[in-house]
């Protein structure tokens, strides 16, 4: 039960950060904000996957 609560909280926090970053990026850069946000999100996912592969974890 505790693990479920922790995972739920992490998912909620990730969604909150995602939508907050999307809103701030879209409002700061105007019409191009959505494109910039998608590019930054793709870069973040790429860095995450690269670091995860480098750490030796295999799923």
How many domain regions? 1
State the share of residues found in helices, binned by percent.
Answer: over 70%
Number of strands: 0
| Average of the residue pLDDT scores | 81
Distance between the termini: 24 Å
Form type: flat
Structural class comes to mainly alpha
Radius of gyration: 15 Å
Number of helices: 2
Low-confidence stretches: none
Instruction: Tell me the major beta sheet.
Output: none
The fraction of residues in strands falls at: under 5%
Order of helices and strands: HH
Give structural notes.
The chain is mostly helical. The chain has one domain (2-54). It is 85% helix and 0% strand. It contains two helices and no strands. Helix 1 (2-29) packs across helix 2. The longest helix has 28 residues, at 2-29. The chain is flat and about 45 Å long.
SSE layout and pairing:
Blueprint: H1 2-29, H2 33-54
Can you tag this structure with a few keywords?
2 helices, mainly alpha, single chain, flat, 59 residues
């Amino acid at each position: 039960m505790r693990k479920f609560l922790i995972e739920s909280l992490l998912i909620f926090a990730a969604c909150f950060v995602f939508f907050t970053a999307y809103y701030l990026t879209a409002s700061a850069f105007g019409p191009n904000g959505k494109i910039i946000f998608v590019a930054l999100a793709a870069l973040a996912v790429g860095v995450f996957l690269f670091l995860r592969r480098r750490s030796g974890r295999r799923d």
